[in-house]
């Protein structure tokens, strides 16, 4: 099963931009922290810019948050970077003539919609500022 790390990487990028403002915020520098390539960082930053979470200037390695971290929820970040916002997916390739295979998708889809809404509602209560505070706290504990 393939899973996406775009949300984690986007949160990482936003936290990095906030914590290291005034330093080298090039996609190369950020990519070293995320341990990915600069192209991936630029793609995610493009999504964050389209969602009006960051602002950038062409030719300058100085992105910044558009609003305070206390106002950026994980739900907002998630919707900005995930191409398929559904967290759960039922297997559509099951035997239609089987009692289980022919009916499980409809049942699971109903449950998955409920779970999706629950997760998204919870994500609306968690803010980038909490992640940044946790990072800074962990750095002093380690």
Automatic annotation (TrEMBL):
- Which PANTHER family does the entry link to? HTH-TYPE TRANSCRIPTIONAL REGULATOR YWGB-RELATED, WINGED HELIX-TURN-HELIX TRANSCRIPTIONAL REGULATOR, RRF2 FAMILY
Its name, as the record gives it, is Transcriptional regulator
Q: Which domain of life is it from?
A: Bacteria
One MF term in the entry's GO annotations? DNA-binding transcription factor activity
Q: Which organism is it from?
A: Enterococcus thailandicus
Name the GO cellular-component terms. cytosol
Q: Which PROSITE patterns match?
A: HTH_RRF2_2
